Amino acid sequence: MNYPNNLKKTYQNPLTYKNRGMDLENELNESNSYYLEINRALIYKKPTPIGVADVSYSPKGKVINKGFFKEPSTLDYNGLYRGKYIEYEAKVTENRTSFPLANIHKHQIEHVKKVLEHQGIVFLIIKINDIVYLLKGNDFIDFLKTNKRKSIPYAFIKEKGYMIKYSYNPILNYLDIVDQIYFEEEV
């Protein structure tokens, strides 16, 4: 195609993995904002701890030129719900048959174990095949203990996980599933 002034248009490959979970993260952020607004829960996205190596100054203020990760972050979200500590990791996979365990870091697995030890509520929210599931932390750890696989089969997620349906408000009502799993005698 000929563009004005003999400009040539180049296209970059749109395939990138770094932001594929942003849609899910945005949906969870909206859901958590709704839960806060109606005073149902206090659940927040945890920031990744960043150290600043180089700063410059402009008329608008400080500009960070170089930064580094101070330490590995634990899980994506944490807070309080019905008097209990709650924490979860949100992941998206394009793999249609399994969830690659490479998506979860070793320190995160250890953190899930610690939250379970302290009787907190911990789980994964996994989007696979355009369906969102909640997988309990103890089911996740049990899978790791009893399998040598490098991925969790989709069949396991369908069997052990709980489907989170999309709705209007909140967009992902995962707390109804948390009620069902962790507070069933109180609901």
Structural summary, described in words:
It is a single chain. The chain is built from five helices and ten strands, in the order αββββββαββαβαβα. The protein has 187 residues and is an alpha+beta fold. It has a single domain, classed as Trna Endonuclease, Chain: A, domain 1, CATH 3.40.1350.10. The strands form three sheets. A six-stranded mixed beta sheet has the order 1-4-5-7-8-10, with helices on both faces. A two-stranded antiparallel sheet has the order 2-3. A hairpin with a 2-residue loop joins strand 4 and strand 5.
Core attributes:
187 residues, alpha+beta, Trna Endonuclease, Chain: A, domain 1, six-stranded mixed sheet, two-stranded antiparallel ribbon, 29% helix, globular
Give the overall average pLDDT.
86
Order of helices and strands: HEEEEEEHEEHEHEH
- Content of β-strand: 25-35%
CATH class: Alpha Beta
Describe the largest sheet: 6 strands, mixed
Roughly how many Å apart are the termini? 63 Å
Provide a quick synopsis of the model.
The protein is α+β, with helices and mostly antiparallel strands and 187 residues long.
Question: What is the element layout, followed by pairings?
Answer:
Blueprint (H helix, E strand, L loop, with lengths): L21 H16 L4 E4 L4 E9 L2 E9 L7 E5 L2 E10 L4 E3 L5 H12 L3 E8 L2 E6 H10 L4 E3 H7 L1 E3 L9 H9 L5
Parallel strand pairs: 5-7
Antiparallel strand pairs: 1-4, 2-3, 4-5, 6-9, 7-8, 8-10
